[in-house]
Every structure is written in structure tokens, then in C-alpha cells.
């Protein structure tokens, strides 16, 4: 008999993936501890958008989603405001969210809501993991402060530079996208900005976008500008001035949004991932969630969302499983991967490809690319129809709730197989 029923699952890293995993485990009655290297979870950055599966997952794992963000109707346009694509959701999503299934909010608000839902005794701060040893019947987790614990299951939710993944599988190299994004948010809305719209505009070389946000009952707007930028090149010295110079190529409200944003609400990120998503995530008594296995360009606007949904599925697939029973655990983790690998891999690929198409096409080809985007249904089909349909299908695959998985037939249909 190799059952170790009383020790909690150890989730490493309190970002969106880790917090969601801990909440989902707790919701189905699995003892869990969430270990974070910092004293408290820290919101990485300032702005975020969530697709419907993430909102549904948050609701199911006990997060208060009431008025959590601005539900936005979303369009892709060129720099002169010609609409190239409208993001369309299937009727079931429209019934629930209107057509604005894509929501905008601030990252600190998302973290606050998720952390508020965590029972006090789950999160353990100041616990940087520095050692993982899978002994077969249990895993030993060692911390920088010299302490250690044992657990029947480790979930590595420790982000793009995952120590856990490095220890278990080795880490593939960083893939530089050679892009950077500067973004911010303001509640000082200029004329022409509708806080229930997301407008994603592209010129020949730059993306300049804004979406509505809601924060503590207030309407506001988040914005970002994105351009090709060598991954090793230092950041511009003055982020606001740089963002303003890029925004001027676009309709007036874009530069006004930047101008209205306090410097402390402006951040910059170089864009990178770890290449293709691995086909197998789990090894022995260790599995993964979030950026640790599917770091994604913000072109997907879905990295945090996918991380949250990973947590939901870990709760659902491990519900009722005797974690001490190695074959039963293996079977449950295989099921989790079946539900997650294909979808997340497709999203990581699509996000990378969009970044290349919009920012790394050789100059002589750009007029042709833009003629295709302006005058054909190509972009509509890709980002307006098929990708929102693929993401919305996750809602079916998630089933009615954490304790009620979707029938296998619905899961297959949702994945189009
Ligand atoms: C510019 C930008 C815009 C984005 N926009 C969106 C968006 O609109 N929508 C969206 O869904 N996603 C977006 N993303 C992606 C999203 O931010 C990430 O996918 C998400 O944060 C991943 O969550 P995670 O929990 O896996 O990892 P992280 O958020 O990186 O969290 C990992 C946690 O693990 C902790 N940790 C690390 N190592 C250790 C250790 N050894 N021991 C203990 N703890 C450790 C860290 O401190 C951290 O708290 C964007 C990303 C960027 C860069």
C-alpha cells in the first residue's frame, strides 16, 4: 500500500496558474499548499485581458467575478481605422457575455480577487524552491531557507523561468520574439474611447491598441504599443515619450490615452517564450501549469487565462483521485494533459505567428500583406472567427463545473477531433 493521504499537494509559484490551481484543489477537497518565493503574490505588470474560459474558471474556483472587468466588443483595424476583423463569439457565449466576451481589467485587481478567495492557511510566502527530488512514493521539496516538505504531488507553476521544469525536464532556451510592448492604463478617458470596446490597430510596423477596463466600479482604458525591438537592445530611456512617438501614427485618441497615463502606470516587456509547448508535461509525481509549460506572447492575450484554466482542469481531473496510488495519479495527469496540451500549443504557435506577420515581414512584402488584411477575409477568418471559436469551445470542454467533467464526446467535439 503506498497511500500518503494526509500530505498536501505542493503548488510552486503564486501567479495566476498557481493561485488557480490551489483554489481548484481546495474547492474539490484536496489538501494543498501554495509556495511563493516572495512574501506575497506580486502582479507581474499592470494590464490584462481575459477570454471567457478564464472568467468561467475563476467563477468555478470561487473567485468573485462580479464586475471584474469591462466586457468589450473587439475589432482589428488598420492605422486609418478601416475594420479588418471583428471578434465573433458563438451564440452561447453571446447569451452570457453579449458579444463582448473579451474583458479588460488591471492585473492588481485580478490578483487581489484571486488572493481574496484563498483560505488563509494555503499560501506560504518567502518560500523559494531550490530542490525537487521525486522519490517515487513522494516528492521532497527543498526551500532556500533550508526547510523542506514532502508531498504526493508537485505542481510547477513557477513561470517562464521555471526552476521545477529545469529540475525535472531541463529548460529549452528562451525564444526571443524580438518585439517589445509598452502598456499602461488610465481612468481619464479621452473623447472617442468607448470603455466597452477593444480596438487593436496595426500600421505597417506597429500595433497600437486599447481596450476598456473596469476597476473597483470605475470605467477606464488600458492601452499598449508594440513594435519590433531586438531582444538584447536596452529599453528606451523614456517609456512614455517612446510610446507617444509610436501612438502618433494612429487616430488621435491613442496618443491622448498615453498622454493621460501617469508614469507609474506605464510598463514595458520584451516578448519571449520557450518555443513549442512540450507534448508531455508530467513526470512521476510532478506536473505543470501556466507559463512553466506554455509561456505565450501577449499577442494571444491568453497566457494568464490559459494558466487559470490549467488550474481548473487540475482540480477537475484530480477530484476523487487517491494521490498515493501512483497508477491512478498517472492516469489523472494523462487526462489533464490530454485536455490542455493541444489547445495551449496551438495558442502559443498562433501568438508567435501573429507577431511575426505583423512585425517581421520584410519591408517590400508589407504592402501586399496589408492589402490582404484590408481587402480579403483572411484576418477575419483567423482572428475573428476560428480563434474565438476554438477558445469558446473550451467552455464545453470544461463541463458544467469542477466536479462534473464534460462527457468525453463533448470534449472531442470541442477540440474538433
Ligand atoms: C506584456 C504582457 C501582456 C500580457 N497580457 C496578457 C493578457 O492580456 N491576457 C492574458 O491572459 N495573459 C497575458 N499575458 C501573459 C501572462 O502574464 C502570463 O501568461 C501569466 O502571468 C502566467 O502566469 P503563471 O502563474 O504561469 O506565471 P507567473 O505569473 O510568472 O507566476 C509565477 C510565480 O512563481 C513564483 N516563483 C518563481 N520561481 C519560484 C521558485 N523557485 N519558488 C517559489 N516561487 C517561485 C514567482 O514569484 C511568481 O509569483 C501577458 C504577458 C505579458 C508579458
TrEMBL record:
Residue span, FAD-binding domain: 8-343
Cofactor: FAD
Keyword Lyase appears in the UniProt entry: no
Domain of life of the organism encoding this protein: Bacteria
Residues annotated as signal peptide: none
GO MF term (any one): monooxygenase activity
Alphabetical UniProt keywords: FAD, Flavoprotein, Monooxygenase, Oxidoreductase
PANTHER family membership: PTHR46496, ZEAXANTHIN EPOXIDASE, CHLOROPLASTIC (PTHR46496:SF1)
Protein known as: FAD-dependent monooxygenase
Taxonomic path: Bacteria, Bacillati, Actinomycetota, Actinomycetes, Micrococcales
Amino acid at each position: 500500500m503506498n497511500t500518503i493521504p494526509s500530505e498536501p499537494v505542493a503548488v510552486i509559484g503564486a501567479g495566476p496558474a498557481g493561485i488557480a490551481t490551489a483554489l481548484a484543489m481546495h474547492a474539490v477537497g484536496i489538501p494543498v499548499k501554495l509556495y511563493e518565493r516572495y512574501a506575497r503574490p506580486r502582479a507581474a505588470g499592470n494590464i490584462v485581458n481575459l477570454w471567457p474560459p478564464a472568467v468561467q474558471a475563476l467563477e468555478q474556483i470561487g473567485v468573485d467575478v462580479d464586475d471584474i472587468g469591462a466586457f468589450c466588443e473587439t475589432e482589428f483595424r488598420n492605422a486609418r481605422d478601416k475594420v479588418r476583423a471583428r471578434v465573433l463569439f458563438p451564440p452561447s457565449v453571446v447569451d452570457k457575455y453579449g458579444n463582448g466576451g473579451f474583458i479588460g481589467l488591471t492585473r492588481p485587481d485580478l490578483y487581489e480577487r484571486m488572493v481574496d478567495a484563498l483560505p488563509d492557511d494555503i499560501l506560504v510566502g518567502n518560500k523559494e524552491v531550490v530542490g525537487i527530488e521525486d522519490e517515487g512514493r513522494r516528492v521532497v521539496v527543498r526551500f532556500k531557507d533550508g526547510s523542506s516538505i514532502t508531498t504526493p504531488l508537485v505542481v510547477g507553476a513557477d513561470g517562464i523561468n521555471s526552476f521545477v521544469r529545469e529540475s525535472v525536464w531541463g529548460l529549452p532556451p528562451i525564444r526571443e520574439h524580438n518585439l517589445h510592448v509598452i502598456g499602461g492604463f488610465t481612468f481619464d478617458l479621452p473623447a472617442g474611447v468607448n470603455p466597452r470596446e477593444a480596438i487593436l490597430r496595426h500600421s505597417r510596423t506597429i500595433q497600437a491598441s486599447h481596450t476598456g477596463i473596469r476597476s473597483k466600479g470605475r470605467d477606464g482604458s488600458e492601452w499598449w504599443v508594440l513594435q519590433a525591438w531586438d531582444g538584447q537592445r536596452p529599453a528606451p530611456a523614456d517609456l512614455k515619450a517612446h510610446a507617444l512617438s509610436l501612438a502618433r501614427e494612429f487616430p488621435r485618441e491613442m496618443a491622448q490615452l498615453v498622454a493621460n497615463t501617469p508614469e507609474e502606470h506605464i510598463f514595458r516587456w520584451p516578448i519571449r517564450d520557450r518555443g513549442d509547448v512540450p507534448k508531455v508535461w508530467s513526470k512521476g509525481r510532478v506536473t505543470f501549469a501556466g507559463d512553466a509549460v506554455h509561456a505565450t506572447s501577449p499577442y494571444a492575450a491568453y497566457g494568464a487565462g490559459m494558466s487559470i484554466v490549467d488550474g481548473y482542469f487540475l482540480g477537475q481531473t484530480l477530484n476523487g483521485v487517491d494521490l498515493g496510488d501512483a497508477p491512478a495519479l498517472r492516469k489523472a495527469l494523462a487526462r489533464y494533459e490530454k485536455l490542455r496540451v493541444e489547445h495551449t500549443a496551438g495558442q502559443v504557435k498562433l501568438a508567435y505567428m501573429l507577431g511575426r506577420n505583423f512585425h517581421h515581414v520584410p519591408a517590400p512584402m508589407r504592402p501586399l500583406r496589408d492589402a490582404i488584411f484590408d481587402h480579403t477575409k483572411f484576418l477575419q477568418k483567423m482572428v475573428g472567427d476560428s480563434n474565438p471559436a476554438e477558445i469558446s469551445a473550451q467552455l464545453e470542454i470544461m463541463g458544467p463545473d469542477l466536479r462534473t467533467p464534460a462527457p468525453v464526446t463533448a470534449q472531442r467535439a470541442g477540440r474538433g477531433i
